[in-house]
Amino acid sequence: MMLDPKKRRQQLNGPMVHRNIRTETTYTPTVTVDLTHTDASGEGDQPPNHAQPAQNIRSQVHHWGGQGEQDAAVSQEETSTFKEPFSIRRVRKSKGNKLTAMLQVRNERGRYLEEVLHDLSEFVDEIVIVDDASTDGTPELCKAYPKVVRLEVLEKPLFAEEWRLRNTLWQAAAGTRPDWLLSVDADELYSTEAKKAIRTLINQEYADWFAFRFYDMWGGRTHYREDDLWCLHKRHTASLVRYMPGYPYFYPQQNHHVPRLPLSCTVLPGVSTELKVQHLGWAGSLEDRVRKYLRYKRIDPSGEWGNLAHYESILDPEPRLIPWKEGP
Known about the structure:
alpha/beta, 22% helix
């Protein structure tokens, strides 16, 4: 049964506490955890308190869950009584976790990939890349970075079958024996605050994924777009997940707008943070945005995988733009 992309977002209602992730704020919102690829969306520096990592993260744990489930804070007693197979419990550790970034790339030379790889090299342990049959020398660029421990270059592109490409990348990354996987696109930059917090996030035993707020930068890096169709930053997108050897991972068989993490991750406990990520895919020139628009319309002319109104909005001559800032 094909998953309806319009139903891939699960509304989670209930108390959420965000402490020691960015700020000491507590509130009770309605939160949407977004599983979609960044481009498919309707798309402060107070440093985190590293002195109190685990016990406060435990109180924030929630599940994406199935229909009717609510996002609820889980107490220490509830967490300790949750029974899991030993094969899963034994991979949860509170220190010494290896962080592996994984990227799928195609003809990214001269855009943002060099900056992204340089940035990742400062805060991850290893990088795994699958090159989707690039013709512009992208693989040679990737080889220049010592933290790229695995680079697989496809002879024939899988871009038109994105779920196969996502699965190929996942299998390549899993083959490096990671502890945590960070799914990154070649045009995404994590904020300074997110990079500072990430070791605290992964070195704990209670949450198995973390979600961030992604901002669609528009026409440059000083503003992001915000309107009814471009509001990914108002939700949370999970991109950091603990790798469980032997756990059943799978992607929906979609040709476009495939989730960046396997759907089976959704039943694991996790935390939505207020940490920010800049998506630079729309930050280039008008010509660059037009090329992306034409590519989307070619791949998905009837809106089977995405939203036709969203595609058309790429060409809006006067989009609503908001000044970007890293802090709250």
